[in-house]
Amino acid sequence: MSYASLSVKDLTSLVTRSGTGSTSSPKLPGQTRPVKVIPLQHPDTSDEARPPSIPFDDILSGWRAKIKRMSLVDWIETLFPCFRWIRSYRWDEYFKLDLMAGITVGVMLVPQAMSYAKLAGLPPIYGLYSSFVPIFVYAIFGSSRQLAIGPVALVSLLVSNALGGIADSSDEELHIELAILLALLVGILECIMGLLRLGWLIRFISHSVISGFTSASAIVIGLSQVKYFLGYNIARSSKIVPLVESIIAGADKFQWPPFLMGSLILVILQVMKHVGKAKKELQFLRAAAPLTGIVLGTTIAKVFHPPSISLVGEIPQGLPTFSFPRSFDHVKTLLPTSALITGVAILESVGIAKALAAKNRYELDSNSELFGLGVANILGSLFSAYPSTGSFSRSAVSNESEAKTGLSGLITGIIIGCSLLFLTPVFKYIPQCALAAIVISAVSGLVDYDEAIFLWRVDKRDFTLWTITSTTTLFFGIEIGVLVGVGFSLAFVIHESANPHIAVLGRLPGTTVYRNVKQYPEAYTYNGIVIVRIDAPIYFANISYIKDRLREYEVAVDKYTTKGPEVERISFVILEMSPVTHIDSSAVEALKELYQEYKARDIQLAISNPNKDVHMTIARSGMVELVGKEWYFVRVHDAVQVCLNCVQSSNLEDKKPSFLRRFGNNGSNNNSSSYTDLQTYNTLLKEPLLPVEK
């Protein structure tokens, strides 16, 4: 293995701390050149220096500066993101694409909306209501140009589960009222999180948790729709055991006609979906699949009138009217579900929107997107809509249909409006099993077994998290599944933060580069010197772990290849702090205590390459003066050179007193020490920095 390294010319050009060049000393046998150390500039900690800023001050000052720079056009685009694409709209190029994409998504949405409303325990018309006003509102306030919003399977299941625990299934009016109230609460939460820019909170939930939760929910959704295939009612539950038990218990009521019709439509939907995905020229089949299933089922029901197949029945005709929620008695009960739906909106909708924005090369602010979804749900709730969010399948179809702007969403809304005005009389002949087949076809792709296989191969811990979340969701319900998954996800985050990666570094042969000795077995260490790199911020939660590991490394480094003079114990510990992005006051105090422990055992602490903020915190705490300015270095190699020379000097002179006392590094007497002081003690390496070229 070969490594890139500094040239001899580069090494000899390094200046000392005094800035006037290095002081050469008489060479001992075996030495080739004097040590040259890059000076480390310590920060100014005087009263005149800028005091440490509070993070909120920096955030507020950044906001104020941004607001001052904003023009009238910027304000309009911030409040109404649609103006960004309206100003640059190319009618001759974009309109045809937006028209086709809007029609395609609209044809797909009409049957899906009715199916998801049934899944939510609502009349099918409320699925269309939820696909009407929110789409128009989102086209104005939403940032994404391809995201297709409306009812989705997962949110519909959450709505059904929440309402089932409050109202009896026979009280349809209360169900509708609570669903509309839930949309209002979800919209308010989304707006608050968007305005306060709190979308980052969801980042703590692992992707494996989301995948496990979604997969388990898809299985529950599919089983809940089986009743329309079997021809008899089953228990209404979000747990798999009651569903399976009720399916088995009612097996004697099984009817063939709905099973055959539902299975036929499901097979057709799956075939059309997969053919549309596989062949680009036939991608329209994917969007047309739900409509095809509805048309086929309606035709069979209209022509043959099978008595055992239940139909949708009468659907009100006309657009939704304005109405305000009549009662807020159940707000407290609905808040947990509204928070969960908001989380799903952030993870699913905002994630899809950001991916589509990156693919189509335009910028999207996730907090602005969340605010747009909130406004759509608030105004939608005033027109009889239940919670809406972005749909993965419909957004994918919209993007594949090359939608360019939010105009495609407006066209989709117009199609929904026309359906409400003119087509509802036809909808009453739609078989329930056809709607169930659409739901099962849609959620079949949410069972992410490929992700589970990938996690098993790549990361067993994430696979465990996926398994725990999916299992608890299946057997204990949605709320418990989410809580357990999020709890384990946060526990893993906290564990990683409290137990950071720490590496012992060794020098790569022929270079001045120091790397993890476990990753690079050929790297060697020096006798009497331990070089440790901390790969995380240092704060109150992990400093105890770091101290314990540092104590272990005092006796554990002898297992690696070492060089240098033979010594009986560790005399130097070098902390490589370039990966450390932050250090708090508790950690600084703990490092001071560690330094005192080292000092009592005649071990010198050296610090290499702290960043600006970390260096400033250490300087303000007085630790620079405590350790000594001469023990802070720009490079690990500089620290090793100085420490190695001290070890060599101690060995050569064979004196009983500690070399630490020789240098007088007691903090109080050596605050003004410099690298030049160290060089007067013949700071010379016994071996050359680089191999001498023959």
TrEMBL record:
GO molecular function: symporter activity
SUPFAM superfamilies named in the record: SpoIIaa-like
Domain STAS intervals: 519-643
Residues in the signal sequence: none
UniProt xrefs under InterPro entries: S04_transporter_CS, SLC26A/SulP_dom, SLC26A/SulP_fam, STAS_dom, STAS_dom_sf
Bilayer topology annotation: Multi-pass membrane protein
Keywords: Membrane, Sulfate transport, Symport, Transmembrane, Transmembrane helix, Transport
Statement: the UniProt record of this protein carries the keyword Transmembrane: yes
Record's subcellular location: Membrane
PROSITE patterns reported for this sequence: SLC26A, STAS
Gene Ontology cellular-component annotations: membrane
Keyword Coiled coil: no
TM segment ranges: 94-114, 120-141, 148-167, 179-200, 212-234, 254-272, 284-304, 334-357, 369-386, 406-427, 434-454, 474-494
Name under which the protein is recorded: STAS domain-containing protein
Organism: Eruca vesicaria subsp. sativa (Garden rocket)
